[in-house]
Amino acid sequence: MTMMIKNTLASGVSRRSFLKTSAMLGAAGLVGPSLLTFGARAEGADGEVMTGSHWGIFKAKVEGGRAVSIAAWDKDPKPSHQLPGVLDSIYSPTRIRYPMVRRAYLEKGPGAEPETRGKGDFVRVSWDQALDLVAKEIQRVEKDHGPAAIFAGSYGWKSPGKLHNCRTLLSRMMNLAGGFVNHIGDYSTGAAQVIMPHVMGTLEVYEQQTAWPVVVDNTEVLVFWSADPYKTNQIGWVIPDHGGFEGMEAFKKTGKTVICIDPIRTETAKEMNAEWVAVQPQTDVAMMLGIAHTLYTEKLHNQDFLDTYTTGFDKFLPYLMGESDGTPKTAEWASEICGVPADKIKELARLFASKRTMLAGGWGMQRQHHGEQAHWMMVTLASMLGQIGEPGGGFGLSYHYANGGAPSADSPVLSGITDGGKAVKGAEWLSTSGAAAIPLARIVDMLENPGKEFDFNGTKNTYPDIKMAYWVGGNPFAHHQDRNRMVKAFQKLDTFIVHDFQWTPTARQADIVLPATTSYERNDIEQVGDYALKAILAMKKVIDPVYEARSDFDIFAEISKRLGKEKEFTEDKDEMAWLKSFYDAAQEQAKQRQIDMPDFDTFWKDGIVEFSVPDEAKAYVRYSTFREDPLLNPLGTPSGLIEIFSSNIEKMGYDDCPAHPTWMEPVERANAKGAKFPLHVDTAHPISRLHSQLCGTKLRETYSVAGREPCMINTKDAEKRGIADGDVVRVFNDRGQVLAGALVSDDILPGVIRLSEGAWYSPVEPGKPGSLDAYGDPNCLTVDIGTSKLAQGNCGHTAIADVEKFTGDLPKVTVFEAPAGAAE
Ligand SMILES: Nc1nc2c(c(=O)[nH]1)N[C@H]1C(S)=C(S)[C@@H](COP(=O)(O)OP(=O)(O)OC[C@H]3O[C@@H](n4cnc5c(=O)[nH]c(N)nc54)[C@H](O)[C@@H]3O)O[C@H]1N2
Ligand SMILES: Nc1nc2c(c(=O)[nH]1)N[C@H]1C(S)=C(S)[C@@H](COP(=O)(O)OP(=O)(O)OC[C@H]3O[C@@H](n4cnc5c(=O)[nH]c(N)nc54)[C@H](O)[C@@H]3O)O[C@H]1N2
Ligand SMILES: [Mo]
């Protein structure tokens, strides 16, 4: 399948003004062209170049040095509909053109007039001036306050590529500079990745799933619980193979049962003709308990499995039956909370017990208060069903992510640039590098409370006193919760430095903004398929850097030079030498495993090397060896078994994370007694963006409503408020207020609205906490607390609010234009 995308969308810069600008730059001597083109160039300026991105492999057509169209790779089983935005991201008006410094900062120094952050009053400076400023400020803060005063645990989805990995490059430079404060965890699976090792002995969320062909052949009931794989499998952390779609399409053809348990009728529910079980948000644990209670009272549970493969069911049972707290967790009890009729809950229990059932859990339900409980209870439910380790049965926490379940090819694993610290095995973003580390989502709490003690997974620590933050490859003013609290907290910093290629809400808040290249303006190398490992791709440079953009590698090398560490940073290797070193190491691995790979030059010329999928990978069943022999193949838990009760967690003594799965009211819930606001805000990941990436492109025109982020609202809720489809609405609670465009629909449960994460924050009064946001950033409404003392994950899916038709003067959305002075 080929998808051609014409460049009619990308009109940010006309070719003429682009040439004029480049010529002017050259003449002004701001930066020589040789500095702009680090490493090798694409073969010839014009023609077709194959490269890759978070959205897949594609071929770009270049004319006159400009990318004019892109088309998905013809072997991509399901190209992402977001590709036109990828093309537009290169030339969109939000592109950062030059190094810029906030005026007050430039004139008066670190910490000056912090309330002007976000107002867009930037001054253009030369690269030399900008790099000197950054290097001097790192030295000042390290000298006066020590490495624990610099937060460089910069989180975000950056771009793929084993060399131009901006986050790792930042850590690498900061390690050479003397150290920094890093982060632990991520926003994706903050709760799950901490609880799962206690329960299953492993991260679970970033691991290969029982292969799709096995599911297609054996699974009778496929349950997507808080998961929307048709939406989320579009993208990968590396370059996606989209193999998950082949699995889902094949399953669909069998006509077997698919159930989606979600407050929204998802893309997956529609594509797979699934039964939609509409559950109240934040109540899945109650619903699962209701199913578990039915299984137990109707003797449908698998006691043999519980006896052989799990520990602690006996301690959980009194809670389930209500002996320990006086509340039996019956289907009726559950129904009151989760809104699913008791009969339906019982029917699901009987169905799951009588059929080979795969519980495919997504992550929305753990990105909320007490989020640890959801997956723990799901594992408990799967244990009672007793199908874990059987072909097509059990549970899986990554079918919706990066095409989990697409069988793994026999291929070597590419290494990449390192940060000089220790990496946690299996998850490069869990680097332990740094002077200290905080649970990522506690960043604002840290900025507000230097010296405050915090709990995390059985440890106690204190927050450092941060003076400077350095961000690359992420958009915290999109991804973090409670925007207004955050705007205020970031004003405490002396210095905030950001590299990006777009004027994101975060870049606008910075003191020093450095223009990075997109991955289409540099050469790199990457694996295709996070789990499938289907190929290694040459991510070839498509065009020369636009305006004055430079690669993060180049920028950090220049700063390292000013810190006297250039050689340590570059190891005297240029771009192509690095890429060759990663490839050669992979080839060495391959040789040992008798896998054929061409030499580097041939690979680079061909652009891709593909690997074959062995039959055993297509037959892979997660936990089959554990099931065969739990003594010989124990889990990594203290007991070697699935821990329905965890003695380790019991020892921690946390009031918000007891020692077995437990239903606890979240801090706020629309349907709870005394709830202050009537609607739950579901901040589901966007269908037509990757978080905030591509929000600044013309792709927005395909989904925005009245020029704003769509706010999906049920017909009844809309009628009650006199809201019609297409109206501008104000969504508000005590934490914030945003405008959005009403999308009236019956594909969402009454009492729930959807405002997708990643919408760019466009405050009407920048710098002022509480300002109305004109575009629709849902994180103006969300709560900024940890999931619990155990994981301290973010609660991006915890928020209640109300909606009204907006009748005031419509404020302009300004965030999609470059700040004044940055666009000439
Ligand atoms: N309410 C709520 N909030 C959420 C979520 C939710 O469900 N609800 N989801 C959370 C989740 S799971 C995640 S992962 C986060 C995502 O949060 P982020 O990962 O911060 O979001 P992205 O939009 O991917 O931001 C990546 C940024 O990196 C920039 N970038 C890309 N390539 C490069 C490069 O080579 N160099 C430089 N310097 N910059 C580059 C992009 O332009 C973009 O601005 O959001 C979290 N926030
Ligand atoms: N198109 C696209 N794909 C992506 C991303 C993207 O931004 N865009 N981001 C990528 C990243 S970084 C990640 S972490 C993953 C995210 O993967 P997920 O975290 O699984 O994605 P979400 O959309 O946040 O949530 C999935 C579903 O959970 C539902 N949900 C929310 N709250 C509840 C609840 O309380 N109960 C139940 N049962 N359902 C609930 C939402 O309505 C949504 O349909 O996706 C990845 N894929
Ligand atoms: Mo994520």
* Class inferred from helices and paired strands: alpha/beta
Poorly predicted regions: 1-44, 423-432
CATH architecture of the domain at 209-407 and 620-646: 3-Layer(aba) Sandwich
CATH third-level topology of the domain at 209-407 and 620-646: Dimethylsulfoxide Reductase, domain 2
The CATH class assignment of the domain at 209-407 and 620-646 is Alpha Beta
Over the alpha carbons, how many angstroms does the gyration radius reach? 26 Å
Ligand inventory: ligand MGD, molybdenum atom
Name the shape in a single word: globular
Tally the beta strands.
30
Helix share of residues?
Answer: 25-40%
Average pLDDT, to the nearest integer? Answer: 93
Seen as an oligomer or otherwise, the chain set is single chain
**How is the main sheet built?**
6 strands, mixed
Distance between the termini: 41 Å
Tell me what portion of residues adopts beta-strand conformation: 15-25%
Short account of what is shown:
This protein is of the alpha/beta class and 824 residues long.
Write up what this structure looks like.
It is a single chain. By secondary structure, the protein is α/β, with parallel strands linked by helices. Among the domains are: 209-407 and 620-646, Dimethylsulfoxide Reductase, domain 2; 679-805, Barwin-like endoglucanases (Beta Barrel), CATH 2.40.40. The strands form eight sheets. Strands 6-5-20-19-18-7 form a six-stranded mixed beta sheet. Helix 8 (212-218) runs parallel beside helix 10, helix 12 packs antiparallel against helix 15 and helix 12 (284-297) crosses helix 16. The longest helix has 19 residues, at 127-145. The chain is globular. The model is unreliable at 1-44 and 423-432 (pLDDT under 50). It binds ligand MGD (2 copies) and molybdenum atom (MO). One ligand MGD binds at residues 188, 225-228, 231-232, 234-235, 261-264, 266, 279, 281-282, 284, 362-365, 367, 400-401, 682, 684-687, 689-691, 758, 797.
